């Protein structure tokens, strides 16, 4: 019962899964580089788990192929694929101690001398001192690490993690995110992590695929996705964005000019997905500052006057504002608390930001998507 020796990038081509007339995963083309920490990020029901289940072999694709390196594994039995999954519910054997839980996979494969391998893996997940305990005598985070150890001991090429931190409280989740990243760096295997938590994906992954309705909306590093979202869905799903509808009025020297609700906005051409017609201009709330009333704003900055503060929440490092604009839309502003004036609800303000921080999206989309 040897697993395949396949090594290399995990490649999905045209991968599709239909349940009756419903398409859960829609013609996915994706290459996940060997040794990377990859996150599939998306809201509930977008097809993340179904994609993982096809990679592990628990679900047959309706169409498409799965390769690891040059080896096609689309029809390979699950236990013969060099792939292992860590589930949210850990799936540990309650009657076995931690050592035996981890050794189980090796012993089942007929490996005789398991001690060194089990000791090494328990050291990797920092649980050597708890080897004699039963799973119920461990915390949630420790049980999670046993589950990771048990998956890694089979020496897969690809480790799939399906919302593995979903059962943990927030503080432990944060700790385990860093811990899993450390383990991945140490073992150097491909990790494919499924989550609906954008902060978790951004903390852990080298590359994120944002999924929506069975398709990939955008693929990139956390920084790329945050700084240059391709769609309103991504702009709203990863962090917060202020998105305002406008029309392109001109272009000169790498700068697109946009009219939005009667105000002229400068948009770097390099950060815009469109060059004419309807556009949605975006800026992240932490890039925006407030000025009192109708203040004159220095050149090189975009300014939206006529705002009225509707909410100001002091949260320590920053104050988060909601500002109602003359056209009725509410925009968000996060200002660092560096001794600046704090505006109260009712204050009249101008929003302004460095023009190079503006991004532009195709204007035919739904501004609220995501
Ligand atoms: P979650 O985060 O809630 O687990 P997900 O993104 O992992 O969501 P999937 O579990 O992949 O989503 O499901 C994608 C879609 O396919 C959902 O609408 C789901 O209801 C549907 N689906 C999944 N499995 C089946 C099945 N066996 N039969 C019919 N529909 C299914």
UniProtKB/TrEMBL annotation:
Any one GO MF annotation of this record: transmembrane transporter activity
Give residue ranges for domain ABC transporter: 10-238
Q: Tell me the keywords, alphabetical order.
A: ATP-binding, Nucleotide-binding, Transport
Signal peptide, first to last residue: none
In which domain of life is the source organism classified? Bacteria
Enumerate the Pfam families for this protein: ABC_tran (PF00005), TOBE_2 (PF08402)
Protein name, as recorded: ABC transporter ATP-binding protein
Q: Which organism is it from?
A: Actinospica acidithermotolerans
